[in-house]
Amino acid sequence: MPDRLPPLTALRAFEAAARHLSFAKAAEELNVTPAALSFQIKSLEAHFGQPLFLRLNRAVELTAAGKALSPGTTEGFDRLAAAWRSARRLSESNTLSVTAGPAFTAKWLAPRLFQFAQDHPEIELRFAATLKIVDLARDDVDVAIRFGRGPDVGLHSRPLAQEWLTPVMTPELHRRYPTVESLKSAPLLHDDSIAFLDPPCDWAAWFRAVGEDFAPTRGARFTQADHAIDAALNGAGVVLGRRGFIVKDIAEGRLVAPFRTALAIDAHFRFVCLPGTEDRPAIRAFHDWIIAEIAKLAHISEEFTFVDVKDVSPK
C-alpha cells in the first residue's frame, strides 16, 4: 500500500459518505452524481488496498478501516476550512462580519450605525441578528456581541459596561404613576429574555430593593427585550429596562427613569473575537467605536443608586 496521500477529491467523497452513511446524500451535498461519488470512493479503496465501506442492500456501513479513517478526515477538512476562512478574512480586511442578539442589534447598534459609517467609510459591515452562539472559528463571523456571564473559553473577550435595570416609562405615564406605591397599580411589562439569570432580575427583586414586598405576576410578557422596550415607548406600560437598551431613550426624553434605584447584575455584554484578531484594524475600529459610544451616555449611570440583585434575592 503506497504511503503517499490519495487525491483530495477522493478523500472528500469518503468523508461525506462516512458522515452521512449514504452515497446518495453525500453526492447531493457535494453536488455530484452518485455514480461519480461511487467512482471516487472505489478509487480511494483501490489506493488503500481494501474496502472502506460494506455495501448493503439499501445502506452502507463503514469497515474497521473506514471507522479508523473517518474521524481524521472529518477533522482534517474542518481544519482546512477554518484555515481557509481565516486567510480569506485577512484578505478581506475592510469587511467586518458581526453577530449580536436581535435586541442589541435593534436597540443599540441600528440607531448608532450611521455615525460608524460616517467615521469609517472604508469598512463594510455585515450583521447577523441571532441568539445562536456561533463558532467564530468555523462560521464566517469576525465579532460577536454576547450577553451573559460567560465564560468565552478560548476567545478574546472584553466586557463592555456594567449592566443594571430600572423602571422606565413614557413621561405621560409617569404623570399617572409618580411614586413607588402608585407603580404597584401601573401596567407592568415583563422582559422574559433575562429569565435565565439566577438570581432572578425581575420586578419582585426591584421592589425588594426599594423596601417593598410586592411580586407582580400580571402584565404583558415579552421574550425579546426590544419588544418590551418598544411597548413601553408606545405607552403600553412600565418596563424594567436594561441599561444598554434604555439610556439613549432616557437621554433623548422618550423614556423617563424616575426611581433612582437600579438593580446591578453581573451579567453583561461582551465583545468577543478570535485570539490574535483583536488588533486587526477593522475589529479594533469597531471595538473602540462601541466603547466611545457607551462613554457618551455613561453619565446616566451616575444618577442611580445601585443595589446588587444578589443582596435582595430570597434567602
From TrEMBL:
Q: Which UniProt keywords apply?
A: DNA-binding, Transcription, Transcription regulation
**The organism's place on the tree of life at top rank:** Bacteria
Record-level GO BP terms:
DNA-templated transcription
Q: Which GO terms describe its molecular function?
A: DNA-binding transcription factor activity; sequence-specific DNA binding
Domain HTH lysR-type positions: 6-63
Pfam annotation, one family: LysR_substrate
* InterPro entries the UniProt entry points to: LysR-type_TF_proteobact-type, LysR_HTH_N, LysR_subst-bd, WH-like_DNA-bd_sf, WH_DNA-bd_sf
Q: Which NCBIfam families match?
A: PRK11139.1 (NF008352)
What is stated as this protein's family in its record? Belongs to the LysR transcriptional regulatory family.
Q: Which PANTHER family match?
A: GLYCINE CLEAVAGE SYSTEM TRANSCRIPTIONAL ACTIVATOR (PTHR30537:SF26), HTH-TYPE TRANSCRIPTIONAL REGULATOR (PTHR30537)
| Name listed for the protein in its UniProt record | Glycine cleavage system transcriptional activator
Protein species of origin: Pseudoruegeria aquimaris
